[in-house]
Write a structure and sequence with these properties.
The protein is mostly beta strands. The chain has one helix at residues 6-11; strands at 16-17, 23-31, 34-44, 47-49, 55-61, 63-70, 73-80, 84-87, 92-108, 112-114. It is globular, with a radius of gyration of 14 Å.
Amino acid sequence: MRSHDLSAALKRTADWVSENGDAEFWILDTIDDGRVWMGRFKGVSPWTCHPDADALIHQLEGEATIVVRVADTNQKHLLKSGQLFVVRQHLWYRIESNGLSLQYGTNRGETLHSELPEKTH
């Protein structure tokens, strides 16, 4: 067991950086068969799904919209600094942020990514 200093983690090299440099992620720890992460990004993430368990997302700084695909429709949820959101297992979601956004979260099991077709409703 150990504690994690989130500010110190941001000062070290990210564990993963997107090709365009708009997203950086740090893996802080493991939990069961999953991971505890922190991500700083802007723009639109790929569609993501966690088939094995729910995912927890905590907005640390900035704002982001979590778009969840439910029954072939997109449900949008604005997440402001200090708020958290639970994405239920098997649901596809993506995160949209116009400005720089910092999030912390945890998820277990497999993480899937896809380019789902856009929905207008």
